[in-house]
Fold this protein.
Amino acid sequence: MRTRILDRLVEIVGTMLAVSFVVYLVLEANAGDVAVKVIGQFSTEAQRALWMHQNGYDDPFLWRYLRWLGRFVLGDWGVSTHYKVPVWQLLPLRLGHTALLAGSTLLVMIPVSFTLGILAGMNKGSVFDRLISFFCVTTTSIPEFASSVFLAAIFVFWLGLLPGASAMTSGFRIEELVLPTLVLALYSTGYLARITRASMADVMDAPYIRAAMMRGVPPGRLVLGHALRNALVAPVTVIMLQIPWLLSGVIVVEVFFAYSGFGSLLYEAGLNSDIAVIEACAMISVAVVLATQLLSDLLYVWLNPRLRRGKPQAVPLAAPAIGAAP
Amino acid sequence: MSRLPPAFRRVPVLIGFAIVGFWIVCALLAPWLAPFDPLHSLQPLAQPLARDGQGHLFWLGTDMLGRDILSRLVYGARTVIIWAGLATATAYVIGIAGGLLAGFHRGRIDRALSFLANVVLSFPVLVLYILIITKLGASGFNIVLAVTFASAPAIFRIVRALTLDLRERDFVLAAITQGESAVRIMLLDILPNAAGPLIVDACLRLGYTAITIGVLGFLGLGLPPPTPDWGGMVNEGRPMAFAFPHLILFPCIAISSLMLGLSLLADGLRDGRPAAFKPGPGGAGAP
Amino acid sequence: MTAPVLRIEGLTVGLPGGGDRVRAVDDVSLEVRPGEILCIVGESGSGKSVLLSAIMRALPRGLGQLGGRIAVDGVDLAPLPERRLREMRGNSMAMIFQEPMASLNPAIPVGRQIEEVLEIHAPALPAAERRRRVIELIADTNLPDPPAIARRFPHQLSGGQCQRIVIAMALAMSPKLLLADEPTTALDVTTQAQILKLVRRLCDTHGHGILFVTHDFGVVADIADRVAVMQDGKLVEIGPVADILDRATHPYTRRLIAAVPRFTAASRTPVDATPCLRIAGLTKYYGPVAALDDVTLDVAAGSTLAIVGESGSGKSTLAKAIIRLIEPSGGGIEIGGRDFARLRGGELARQRRLIQIVFQDPFGSLNPHRSVGTLLVRAGMLGGLSRAEAQTQARHLVARVGLKPEALGRKPLAFSGGQRQRIGIARALAMRPSILIADESVSALDVSVQKQVLELLAEIQRETKLTMLFITHDLRVAAQIADHILVMRRGRMVEHGAASAVLAKPSHPYTAELLAATPGQIWERTRHRLFEAAAAEIPSL
């Protein structure tokens, strides 16, 4: 177990280095472009040359990369050209907002998906199962921007119950959290419920469940004591993999509801060519993805006694792309 | 009904097939189906079922630049399906090639390809899109590039897992013992037997790609205007959505229905596949 | 006369439509008395497993009881509500299955699973008493260190150990009736011998009535009091074991018994001594574990070597190493005097035709998407023939293995297990090899089909002077076909010699152990008389 974690950590560091290299390459390979973005489009050639010289952009690319990497690792993440403040000042608030949204989404999503999935998987093929499957398919077919539109139409414009924007300008208001959470939860609940259902149905078909039934184990005990333990392994690992998606994949919801989270920070940085912010956000995102993958693997092994001996097994697929599931 | 292959006999699958078929027809026959030129400004912000000066009917109304929404939807289907189709196909070619090689040869090739795939997969997709599109500009080709990048590693993983499993089957081992070339084994023995799960994945992935293109349009990172693009239509219409809901309602319904159709189709294909190998009479097993 | 623990009258179970048969079980009547073991024998598709499921009232979806009465311990099962049935299951009637690890929940320690049975059916029992009883039950099955075993998970135990746990669970409430569905089929022969002894002992001491399903007549000979033979859902013959084994009246029974290979080495013509295959010091390591440890032997051209051993003996690894499906860690392989072990790339691909293999699983060894014809033609072409020559050869091969010419155009799905093995043999022969390896090629077949395939292989060998390596765990099969026998254990060669010598006078204690564990030996001695008689009166299949 210990060697496996060690291997994975090496892998993680390697991946992060590779990603940082690619990000830096794409964004800062052309020093001239960087100068334009920092000083502005209307700068003269001379001003740019001066700036480049002053900031070390005359040096060869690899040297610049290593310098940047060194500074980054030590905590110097540069200054945002758009907001004009150091990058690390921008992050805590945004990350906090995103964590809040992620937390509330998980709080809704997990109990609902598990309940629906388990009930559907137990009664495979029944009317109930088909209704739930239909519900799941429908909710995962509606992209977030569409469901944002529909829900906003209902709750904001028609019923007037909830505010249309969730900028949290007057501090924390729970009404502002409702719609974004609902949109995200609607989408991911369907997806997680389907995974849970499939897992539950598989387990219920397993020979050891039949054998337990032949020993006279009553249905309640069969499900709670025997089936669940094995059926929840897959959904739990999927939840772990949803977390990176809740970090940056929810950009649509943040934009639509003007919720100032991590995703919208990245989006604005992209639109405004705010290089330092993009770099920092990219590294944070990658770190979260890799950390949750590692956690998911460990959890998978822990939950599955068969694997504790050290047999290699396939890593579950990565998190969904923006607006989509894997 | 009984003449259809078993996968297609259930109602949800037929509905899915009908929806997807409908949009494909729209895409193919757009010039003949659309009542107006999607780029032509006619009468701004007309309501659905209103008529213009010459008595032409705007079935779904017009947008703020006066373009007929129904026509834009129909042409938008073409945009979505072509670009989503292209992106998915490219991702598949790359993913299948990589997955087969990694799964079949294992060892160093597998480690290298898997590392590569992991690096790309770890890249938060949003960052990927922003990087590509801000660097290279927004065009159909770049969107295909971005989406391919995002999807190929996942496909690689799926194909690799299938290949690793199939590679241990006796009929593949038999081919190896007969001196069959690796390429032929991968293409003739492994790939056809992996086709089932891959087709199911393809349907879903096509849908997700279509949605992704929609999302990119919504975020303003999609195809440049005035190309009709469902996501872009929602983005453009958003500021006025309160007063003119038809601007964003119909594109949303369009994209949701396409995804729904593909999901139903995928579900049906997944559940309805005839049992590939039901062991018949042949024996009491022994180790 | 004590009342029977199980009485079945006219039981009929229907199959879902669309198959070639309407009834899984057709008008079966039988009785099991306390303290007796009734064995049900039959080939696959005979309905014996469905019969057991019907008794437990747990038929799979799509199958329904159409008629008849089932009474356990005098109680008619038909009118009972599900709750009452649940009370009986695990309590007055219990079942054990073929796959031991599949019956146990992989996420719960085995002791807890046994305890659960007691919790459900004896709720009044205090916890401490329960746990004591669990240890007692485990000890009863001859497992060492019961408290330690009780804490383990199923995957930490061997197949034999798991099966004992399953037996302990089944007997926890001292059921009157025990149903066993091929419980030893998936176990090694030595483990099987121990489990059979255990079952017999428990039955004698506690007086359970046992309904034991098996396909192996050797097992029947060793533990049964009475035997019932099933064919296509019907009960064809039933009676005391001695009557059935020695004096069976129904032609199907006689045919089945005649198909069981005899356990004495068949008389074989001595073979030419020039070796076709030479193996020297072959080794294969997986990490620190030696799957193959210094295997050295010669196989004479045109002879058959049977490689026998239990699971983990390395016999399959040896086959795969010789044919270079896995790369040996060390050692030499020579085929027809030429070095085979060190060939690479294109040269290896060309020389591969010298040695071919037929696999165990008839259902996994053929690509479901390619037709038989394509398969054979491709094999022929890889062996150096032109397309036209390969096509002619394909037609010839299909006939040779006893299939109709139409088979060339069909896909594997259309064939039965025995037919698929024939196709596998045809594919191997298409390359005109010098050596044919059969890796447990008849283990997954019914005994009558097995006999046909073995005869086919023998004929082909006579015609083509093929050298054969036959991997099997079944010493009877080895006895029937081998000139020489190699016994393996944990990757090492244990004994190697002429078949008649190894079987009659083994020099290594492990070989003796294997021979002693093979079921049905006492029967074997009286059997050869019946064999001669049956062979004389029944025409060849």
Notes: The mean pLDDT of chain C is 89. Chain C has 20 helices and 20 strands. The CA atoms of residues 376 and 452 of chain C lie 22 Å apart. The two ends of chain C are 43 Å apart (CA to CA).
